[in-house]
Design goal:
Mean pLDDT: 91
Number of helices: 0
Largest sheet: 5 strands, antiparallel
Shape: globular
Distance between the termini: 43 Å
Strand content: 35-45%
Low-confidence stretches: 1-40
Length: 407
């Protein structure tokens, strides 16, 4: 039986002109992977997958392995936003993986052998990567530094990295930043012991707003009209045109750590946990944040429809997609919170013991959902128009992290 909490809205408004502190500086679904060439119908997608000991790069249509690149350690993957490159979080920072697919100036698709380049954005304890507008924003947990570069400039970076801007934090912490189209930078605040909220810097990197009422701040997303949302352990923060609003959770403990957004939808979908004593990483609730009305609604999912942070995505029509622990892909209407169709894709699975452990993951690109199945060392491609698995591959090793570029 599906339970729905009463909608709640609490305003904790901060005027944009309240603070004028100077910060030191050197000189988002988001449209991620949308460079000038990614609208070409000839573009060739490729899939990057980590495993224990390396990274596979696969053809996005046939799922054939194009490259097997050795790389030690636990490494995370994020698309760089230009349709070609993937950023691999290594011990040195964000290392650039060239997947070998792009569209040239004439609009023709080009391919080459994938290669893990020697280019690295230095970042002690490399963390979140955010793509929004024409910028890619990197966050280094070890220093708190935010590194920003023009996304398209990476396409021309064959021998050296593109020019960057680095914005220091007040203190190092596990954080995240996003730059809006007008140059406004939203960045988390905290220390290695506690994260407390966000601050807002204008294009001149002067602080213009702050909110410290977001314990354990984590994750971000930019919904329609560049309204940004950050998760807290007791609700969410919403930044809208200079104003920060706190929307409190309906539970005393109501943690949101990840936001799943579309830049054409005012509803942001977040993961949600109302049990501070819960064990494992499976969740059975979602929060729907109306970024226009500044309200939130928490919904309970049916039995068997549990997920981790890797298992929610937005579809081509702004729907929310959930890869559930029963192995099916569920479609949820974020406007109503109602579940619609469901499609069996993989076998039932259980919570990982540690968050880094391989477990099923979901990535949506266009009309295709890519689903990993570590239990069978497999990757599946699902046609979202029909819900059918259109291609599958069994890999030599167990897949863990996944990223998909569009070409």
């Amino acid at each position: 039986m599906r339970r729905q909490h009463r909608t709640t809205a609490f305003a904790a408004v901060i005027a944009a002109s309240a603070l004028l502190l100077t910060a030191c500086a050197t000189t988002d679904a988001t449209p991620g992977d949308a460079g000038s060439a990614t609208d070409s119908p000839k573009a060739q997608p490729r899939v990057a997958l980590t495993y224990d000991g390396g990274v596979y790069v696969l053809d996005g249509d046939t799922l054939t392995i194009e490259a097997d690149l050795p790389l030690a350690g636990f490494n995370r993957l994020n698309t760089a936003g230009d349709g070609r490159h993937v950023l691999v979080t290594t011990t040195e920072g964000f290392q650039v993986l060239d997947t070998g697919t792009w569209t040239d100036a004439s609009g023709a698709a080009q391919t080459a052998d994938p290669v893990l380049t020697d280019l690295v954005f230095d970042a002690p304890a490399a963390g979140h990567v955010v793509k929004h507008g024409d910028k890619t924003i990197l966050y280094a947990d070890g220093t708190g530094d935010t590194t920003i570069f023009e996304t398209a400039a990476l396409l021309d970076a064959t021998d050296e990295l593109p020019a960057t801007e680095v914005v220091p934090a007040e203190a190092a912490h596990h954080g995240v930043s996003i730059e809006l189209d007008d140059g406004t930078l939203l960045t988390t605040v905290g220390t290695p012991e506690a994260r407390t909220g966000i601050r807002v810097l204008n294009a001149d990197r002067e602080e213009i707003a702050r909110n410290a009422e977001c314990p354990s701040v984590h994750g971000e997303g930019a919904a329609a009209d560049e309204v940004a949302v950050f998760g807290c352990s007791d609700g969410v923060l919403v930044y809208d045109d200079g104003v920060i609003t706190k929307i409190a959770a309906p539970d005393a403990y109501g943690r949101t750590g990840n936001m799943y957004v579309s830049e054409t939808s005012t509803i942001a979908v977040g993961d949600y946990n109302s049990d501070p004593d819960s064990e494992g990483y499976l969740l059975s609730e979602l929060v729907l944040v109306d970024t226009a009305a500044k309200t939130s609604t928490v919904i309970d999912l049916p039995a068997g429809v549990e997920y981790t942070w890797r298992d929610v995505a937005r579809g081509p029509n702004d729907e929310a997609l959930i890869l559930a622990s029963d192995g099916s892909l569920y479609v949820l209407d974020p406007e109503t919170g109602e579940l619609g169709d469901s499609y069996p894709v993989i076998g039932a699975w259980e919570s990982p013991v540690e968050w880094q452990d391989a477990h099923p993951a979901l990535i949506v690109v266009g009309g295709t959902a890519y689903v990993t199945e570590p239990a069978t060392n497999s990757l599946h491609a699902v046609d979202l128009a029909t819900g059918k698995v259109v291609s599958s591959v069994e890999l030599p090793a167990t897949p863990n992290e996944i990223a998909v570029v569009t070409g």
